[in-house]
Amino acid sequence: MTFVPRSRQDSTTPDVPGPGVTIGVSEGLAQVLTAEDCYAVDPLHRHSGTPRQMPHPAPQPRTIVDKIWTDHVVTQDPGAPAVLAIDLHLIHEVTSPQAFTGLRQRGLRVRRPSQTVATADHSIPTTPRNLPMLDLQAAAQIGQLEQNCAEFGIPLHGIGSPHQGIVHVIGPQLGLTQPGMTIVCGDSHTSTHGAFGALAFGIGTSEVEMVLATQTLLQRDPKTYEVRVDGRLAPGVSSKDIILALISRIGVGGGTGHVFEYRGEAIRALTMEQRMTICNMSIEGGARAGLIAPDDTTFEYMHGRDHVPHGVGWDAAVARWRGLPTDDGAMFDKSITIDANTLEPMVTYGTNPGMGIPISAAVPAPDDEADPSARRALERALEYMDLRPGQPILGQKVDVVFVGSCTNGRISDLRLAAAALKDRRVADGVRLMVTPGSDEVKREAEREGLADIFRAAGADWRESGCSMCIAMNGDQLSPGQYAVSTSNRNFEGRQGKGGRTFLASPLTAAASAINGVVSDPRQLPGIESLAAVGGR
Amino acid sequence: MAEPFRVFTSKVVPLPAENVDTDQIVPARYLKVTDKAGLADALFRDWRFDEDGSLKDPPFILDRPGMGGRGIMLVGDNFGCGSSREHAPWALTAWGVRAILSTSYADIFRSNSLKNGVLPIVVPPQVHARLWALLDEDPDAELTIDLAEEGILLPDGSTIDFRIDPFAKQMLLAGTDELGYLLSKEHEMAAWEAAHSPRIDTVAGVR
Q: What residue in A sits closest to B16 (Cα-Cα)?
């Protein structure tokens, strides 16, 4: 943003309540703030100088983000953020306890328990469910979630429930995630639900408390960022590779202040689970949300699921959802085009998700980096990863392979990994952990015989949970170990203190597990038919 | 809620790294707490401490002599990226940080900080460079941060202007919070709910 010297308005001292007064601030704001003040300074605001709620003289083409936003503004004071209605609030054990404590301190209730749903996923063990939880702190946190849900009347799909799973896997699975909704959760990967054409984003615990108490949030309207993916993916190249390629191009802060809208032929051709993988990692590109307009693929996936409308209600809902896609001619604040035809499988080499390269490329050299701070960051990353500048990433030894997470822990991800591993063995000295994204995914994988394939290959078949993606439940790397992981973050220590992560697709992970080194999935025998297992 | 944000003067902790993620600010294994207190020791835990709990040698910047008690951090671009954990600003405030200076912040971290009395000040790249030069010259330089005036006073008497979201500014200056504001909108919320039936019922039977 450009630096605009402030025009001081000393005569208009803000008229705000004193310390501890928590209501009635709006009048003071209305007095001191002009629309121009607010829109000029807030990096999240799109139309400088033009408030969104002003009636347009003629209907203008609108983006899907614009439509959902307008649909949910409850009220907005001049100069203040909009009060945005929230349709669905997902909660889990890690980011909610302090929010419930806040409610109790203020004597508040949960306004809409029936628009709230909870699960336990982050800190739970993925060892057999009949074993006791050894981590007493995690057990206490889960106990608190159970108590909070019981006290405030919130449905909980906790440990032992057939619907337990990673919060971003069970929402779509249960049909709770629907087009046109606003969906929030105290978890940055809430962007996953954008795959259904919902405006879904992660929030902090203070905001969790606000949504529990009011079913609304204060938000500035976001800018929009068109991510157009033309062409077709080659066999062995997946939606994970699209999102890793995007982030490697725009960087981990490239989407800050924006919502991505993924469009184009290659996006339309993806299944819902593949779309979820892309939207999931929007946050890794800096965008708090990312979405894909709903289409027949969306409706086909949703039809018949528990919480979707049935009968005539379904037809009416589909008719409504068909009005959501971005109108022709609508403007985006930013745009980028990616050619799917030229994409290779991607893999990260560094310590943030933007440090990714095509799998056949070499690890970049700091000396080639002109910008001093980027050079310093690259040097530090290569030191942490213990990789040499210019070395090929293919053939790099791995100790652990992790298949799972809210990015790639769904049934189609497991089908792909199993297809690659069928009648093969995990390389000696390599540990392959497969963690289904939900209890339902686990049951389905067992029913289809995928679990047997994993076990026969020498893999460790686990219970569902976030597991080694966030490594707070004991599933973790040892210092210095290398992992190929289908998860979303390769930050220092993310998968265990001192652990080193290469982010990649399920097929790349499976190929690497078989060979014991980072491997190109396109070299797997029968890759054409194998890749088709994941859906068209 | 927090105390009203007042003018304060402090020396600066320099952390010249870009894209510092919230997993570094508070590693995930410290997220099993059920309250907000006691996170000061978790702040930048794996950059500060060895496996056995002893300080790194040489120590990380926070643990070097004279750094304790400093309330301002100067950091690189896109600070606070990654996870939405509000434990990050909780740990920063527990250690004593009240303002951060950078060219940019990740969206969720920025929002979380404002709700916890930590001021995420954005400065343009040339001002950022000037601040680094100032600290190179005098690592103990003191800055005065005035939120009401949206200005930073430098030791040479010059000032740097900054802009902060006006709504968040009012909240910080008053020591009030957004939930209080939202609760004052009960009438509007009730009207909206009367006109919009819920799109979902999570309580209704799941088969």
A: A373
Contacts of A22 in chain B (CB under 8 A): 1, 176-177, 179-181, 183
Per-residue 3-state assignment (H helix, E strand, C coil) for A214-225: HCEEEECCCEEE
pLDDT band at B206 (very low <50, low <70, confident <90, very high): low
Q: Which residues of A touch B1 (CB under 8 A)?
A: 20, 22
Rg (CA), chain B: 20
Which strand (E) or helix (H) includes residue B62? none
- For residue A480, what are the CA distances in angstroms to A247, A343, A366, A426, A495? 25, 30, 22, 20, 11
Tell me the pLDDT band of A42, cut-offs 50, 70 and 90. very low
Q: How far is CA A127 from the centre of its chain?
A: 25
Which of A87, A206, A493 lies at the smallest CB-CB distance from B86? A206
Is the Cβ pair A74, B189 closer than 8 Å?
yes
Residue B103's pLDDT is what? 97
CA-CA distance, A532 to A534, in Å (whole number)?
5
CB B83 to CB A155 under 8 A? Answer: no
Are A21 and B177 inside 8 Å of each other by CB?
A: no
Residue-level pLDDT at B147: 98
A286 and B33: CB-CB below 8 Å? no
pLDDT on residue A535: 78
| A306–B206 CB contact, under 8 Å | yes
Q: What are the residues whose beta carbons fall under 8 Å from the beta carbon of A96, sequence distance 6 or more?
A: A118, A145, A148, A186, A205, A208
C-beta separation of B108 from A202 below 8 A: yes
Cβ(A125)–Cβ(A473) below 8 Å: yes
Give the per-residue pLDDT at A373. 87
**Which of B179, B185, B186, B193 best tests the A interface by mutation, with the highest count of A CBs <10 A?**
B179
Cα B123 to its chain centre, rounded Å, is 15
Three-state secondary structure readout of A17-53: CCCCCCCCCHHHHHHHCCHHHHHHHCCCCCCCCCCCC
A517–chain B Cβ distance below 8 A for any pair: no
**Among candidates A435, A500, A504, A434, which has minimal Cα distance to A243?**
A504
Smallest Cα distance from B86 to chain A, Å = 5
Strand partners, A260: A225, A290
> Token match 């941060």: residue?
B145
A8 falls in which pLDDT band (50, 70, 90)?
A: very low
The residue extents of the domains of chain B are 8-195
CB contact under 8 A, B188 and A75: yes
Any idea what the Cα angle at residue B16 is, between residues B10 and B18, rounded to 5°? 125
Q: What share of chain A is helix, strand, coil (3-state, %, to 5)?
A: 35, 15, 50
- The class level of CATH for B8-195 reads alpha beta
Tell me whether residues B85 and A95 touch, CB distance under 8 A.
yes
Q: Do A25 and B78 touch (CB under 8 A)?
A: no
Q: Which residue, among A205, A314, A469, would best test binding to B if mutated, counting the most B CBs under 10 Å from its CB?
A: A205
Contact A449, A422 (CB under 8 A): no
